[in-house]
Specification:
Blueprint lengths: L3 H8 L12 H11 L3 H9 L8 H18 L9 H5 L1 H18 L1 H17 L4 H25 L2 H20 L6 H17 L5 H13 L4 H17 L3 H18 L5 H7 L2 H5 L7 H10 L7 H17 L3 H17 L7 H12 L24 H10 L1 H7 L1 H15 L5 E4 L11 E4 L2 E5 L7 H31 L5 H25 L5 H23 L27 E4 H16 L4 E7 L7 E4 L1 H16 L5 E11 L2 E8 L6 H6 L18 H12 L3 E7 L3 E9 L10 E6 L1 E6 L3 H11 L5 E6 L2 H11 L6 E5 L10 H8 L5 E5 L5 H10 L2 E4 L7 E6 L2 H10 L1
Parallel strand pairs: 5-7, 11-17, 12-13, 12-14, 14-15, 15-16
Antiparallel strand pairs: 1-3, 2-3, 4-6, 7-8, 8-10, 9-10
Helix pairs in contact: 2-3, 3-4, 4-6, 6-7, 7-8, 8-9, 8-10, 9-10, 10-11, 10-12, 12-13, 13-14, 14-17, 17-18, 17-19, 18-19, 20-23, 20-24, 21-22, 23-24, 23-25, 24-25, 24-26, 26-27, 27-29, 31-32
Length: 864
């Protein structure tokens, strides 16, 4: 027979403790546990003299202490006090604690615990007090059996059993009958995950989430189980807005409730929906940091499995097939340790197949949870983005609160819904209402009709990644402005205005014209966002935090801001010029009938020592000036050439031109001309450009004729190319070129380039295993080899560097990669003695053919 104390414990109602005459510390610990203060309950137990308690109460207290430790993620105690085994209530708590621990570690143990609980339910005394608890216990146990069966892979039978038990619980509550909180909480918390693994991502899921929000107590364990279930659902279905909300909820539950288990899930799951929607590049830095900080030894096998599965999906959508292969292999190994979760087996197999493919992953052909899913931006998103971006300049003047309110208002206007509120933290109620995070605030749209909820949520999930980056840029620019002193505020504000316009406008055009972003557009978007951050970091470097607030940033005698403290570096100018030109074509594509032509072929491999960020800013501003000289249409031509050790970069337009008087004033601080045909603006752009170029040993001058146009001419000293860079290829004839690349187009380019060269054979390999097998079988028996290798190889954890080192052919190899400008890649190239060639320069690389020497021919003759 269950004691009155046990009945009160399972009911979890404070009123039930009245009249029990419990020791104060026990009642305090129980109430702390019930209100979700797991740490506080354990601290009370730590000071409690357990030996002074009655034997049955001591057993229940010891079992509760074990359950608290399991809830916090501290593991299951291997030492179980003997009195627990003698008390039916304590045994129920103990087996439930064992199940809760084993669920994350080993499902064979979890099943044994459920069978033990089931037997206890059948054998409990059938007195009036125990009968209701016995029924509640059996409903919980049968629900959890269905839950585990669905997870194990018996999706239909498991779902039917679990949903039936859930319906029985709902029926009792609907008819006003009491259901013990101890047994009820796990049913409510776990049911969304049952639906998730059973593929029931529908209105049934929404109802389950709504019930959890309304009924679950403030217990961080159950809230975490529930929240992570909802998070999986929203993350895997691409709901960026709600996934971020539930990720933040989970993080808050960790901090407040002291639940340790879910920290890795919190970090990775908020990134997943961004990748699913094609914004994988925007989270690349966060993703890499998340992978680097994860310690497998500190997480349960199930958590590790879920972590690496999500990581594999993100890597796949980022085009990192090798990383995806490694992550899904780890996910599978960790899942097998649990001896369950076979429901994920088909999904893991699909991921492995996608990761091992030789061609880029196409989301439209992939199946997340078995359902093909392509996210398209809503048709009215373009106008909204334009207004959001246009409001940034006003926001810089009016303050952050004004801008957050502006974002909320614009969203409400475009959604035709004015019933919204802005909250300072993650809302604890109405989580099914459409929510968008804007900086550190949360915009909640209230009382949205049920038939409009799907549209609202899809709209907010579409806009969320862009709003996130707009707010990041806004905050960085605002911080830079606040760090400046009063003396330089005007200058810095002008610089911010110059710098932020182009990248954000480019981002705007990309987002507003794309329906399912292709790889090229995603790459451009990544570079634009990166440039925003580079500019912000450059501005911040001018205003040291350690300076007094009265210290002005370094200025010249006439008040013009000096160059940033960014170090100079030797840079390949054609790639920088091409990138900025591409950005401008995107920025102005739908605003003016203009053409931007860039021709860098005459100086394809020219390097100059510059400050990279400053150079990008200067070129961007000069192109803006050229484009703004047009009334309606026009052409801007960018040319790059090298003459006698000097690089000349000219920007020509056929705009309205300038008079000699205006031309003579260009570069003077405070003078600007051309935007409205009159003198206007601060003149910061040209003055700053001239100062920078002079500091780099170059110059900037102008030529102009009224009615014909203007030409800006930049000059820079030609710098020697870095030792790791390949300015050309040399092939020996007769000889053999061995191409290792996973892209068929690259193979086609190389075939065309070497097709007309006599006695030069080309061998093609598409993967690391393929070329390693060939080399093992032939020992690389080719004449005068030249290896042209890609860095990243789809479906392999080995890079091109690894292959070159394994073959021992560094002296005969060139790394041809789009990642040539990354410091890590450059460092590896220097270390093993391999030169780098940008893939973007393949079409203009010069190839020379050198006849074999007499000694080489004699050797080849003897060998044959």
């Amino acid at each position: 027979m269950l004691t009155r104390e046990a009945i009160a414990y399972f009911s979890r109602e404070v009123e039930s403790l009245e009249g029990l005459n419990l020791p104060k510390d026990v009642s305090s610990a129980w109430m702390a546990h019930w209100r979700g203060d797991l740490v506080g309950a354990l601290e009370i137990y730590a000071t409690l003299n357990v030996s002074s308690l009655r034997r049955d109460l001591r057993a229940l207290v010891e079992a509760d202490r074990i359950l608290l430790a399991v809830k916090r993620g501290e593991g299951f105690s291997r030492i179980v006090p003997s009195e627990i085994e003698e008390d039916p209530a304590a045994r129920i708590v103990l087996e439930y604690a064992r199940f809760s621990w084993a669920f994350w570690v080993d499902h064979s143990i979890a099943w044994r615990s459920l069978f033990s609980l089931f037997k206890m339910g059948l054998t409990l005394d059938r007195d009036m007090r125990s009968n209701r608890l016995r029924f509640d216990l059996l409903v919980m146990v049968l629900f959890l059996m269905g839950h585990l069966a669905a997870i194990r892979g018996n999706r239909l039978s498991g779902y039917l059993l679990a949903s039936r038990m859930f319906s029985i619980y709902e029926g009792r509550v609907t008819h006003g009958k009491v259901f013990s909180a101890f047994f009820r909480n796990i049913i409510i918390a776990a049911y969304p995950y049952t639906l998730f693994v059973s593929g029931r991502l529908s209105k049934q899921m929404e109802a389950a989430v709504q019930l959890g929000e309304e009924m679950l107590p403030n217990d961080p364990y159950y809230l975490s189980v529930f929240t992570v279930s909802a998070l999986y659902c929203y993350a895997y279905t691409g709901d960026t807005a709600r996934a971020e909300i539930y990720s933040m909820k989970l993080s808050r539950q960790e901090t407040i409730g002291g639940v340790l288990r879910y920290k890795p899930i919190t970090k990775i799951m908020r990134l997943l929906p961004f990748a699913l929607r094609g914004y994988g590049h925007l989270i690349e830095q966060d993703f890499n940091e998340c992978l680097d900080s994860h310690l497998m030894s500190e997480a349960d096998p199930l958590i590790n499995s879920q972590f690496f599965r999500a990581a594999a999906i993100i890597a796949l959508y980022q085009g990192k097939h090798s990383l995806a292969t490694d992550c899904i292999a780890k996910a599978r190994i960790e899942r097998l340790k649990t001896r369950s979760f076979s429901a994920w087996e088909p999904f893991d197999t699909r991921l492995e197949q996608f990761a091992a493919g030789s061609s880029p992953f196409v989301p439209a052909q992939g199946a997340i949870l078995g359902l093909p899913k392509v996210f398209e931006l809503p048709p009215n998103l373009a106008a909204l983005l334009i207004e959001l971006i246009r409001s940034i300049s006003d926001g810089m003047q009016s303050g952050r609160d004004w801008y957050v309110e502006r974002v909320a208002h614009l969203l409400g206007h475009h959604l035709s819904w004015s019933n919204y509120e802005i909250l300072p933290s993650v809302p604890s109620d109405n989580s099914l209402a459409p929510i968008l995070r804007v900086g550190d605030r949360f915009v909640v749209y209230r009382a949205v009709p049920a038939d409009r909820l799907p549209f609202f949520r899809e709209m907010l999930s579409s806009i969320n990644p862009v709003v996130m980056n707009i707010m990041t840029s806004y905050d960085e620019q605002l911080k830079a402005k606040e760090l400046s002193s009063a003396a330089a505020t005007g200058i810095l504000a002008a610089q911010v205005s110059h710098d932020i316009r182009s990248p954000l406008a480019s981002l705007n055009v990309i987002a507003s014209t794309s329906k399912g972003l292709d790889n090229e557009t995603r790459l451009q978007m990544q570079k634009v966002v990166g440039r925003i951050r580079d500019i912000a970091n450059s501005l911040l470097s001018r205003n040291h935090v350690g300076k007094s607030q009265n210290d002005a940033p370094d200025c010249s005698s006439n008040g013009v801001l000096t160059l940033s403290e960014e170090e100079t570096s030797i840079e390949l100018l054609p790639t920088l010029v091409s990138y900025i030109a591409s950005e401008k074509r995107l920025q102005y594509a739908h605003q003016k009938a203009i053409r931007i032509i860039d021709d860098t072929s005459a100086a394809s491999f020219c390097f100059a020592r510059i400050q990279k960020i400053e150079f990008g800013r200067i070129l961007s501003n000069l192109l803006n000036n050229a484009i703004e000289s047009f009334k309606e249409m026009g052409t801007v031509e960018i040319s790059l050439r090298e003459e006698a050790g000097v690089i000349k970069l000219s920007i020509s337009d056929n705009g309205k031109g300038m008079t000699p008087d205006v031309l003579a004033k260009l570069g003077q601080r405070g003078f600007s001309f051309g935007k409205d045909g009159v003198e206007s603006g601060s003149g910061l752009g040209v003055a700053h450009a001239m100062m920078a170029l002079e500091a780099w040993g170059g110059s900037l001058c102008y030529e102009s004729s009224v009615g014909l146009g203007t030409r800006a001419i930049m000059t820079l000293p030609l710098a020697e190319s870095p030792s790791w860079f390949s300015v050309g290829l040399s092939v020996t004839s007769p000889g053999t070129v061995i191409v290792l690349d996973d892209d068929p187009i690259i193979h086609s380019i190389w075939s065309d380039k070497f097709a007309k060269m006599a006695d030069v054979d080309v061998l093609h390999f598409y993967s690391a295993p393929e070329i390693l097998t060939w080399y093992r079988e032939t020992l690389g028996d080719v004449i005068n080899p030249l290896y042209l290798c890609d860095y990243e190889l789809t479906g392999s954890s080995s890079t091109g560097f690894d292959v070159i080192e394994m073959l021992g052919v560094a002296d005969d190899s060139v790394m041809v990669t789009g990642r040539w400008d990354e410091p890590f890649v450059q460092g590896r190239a220097i270390k093993i003695g391999v030169k780098l060639l940008p893939k973007s320069r393949m079409d203009v690389i010069k190839v020379s053919v050198t006849p074999a020497t007499i000694d080489e021919r004699l050797f080849q003759s003897v060998d044959s």
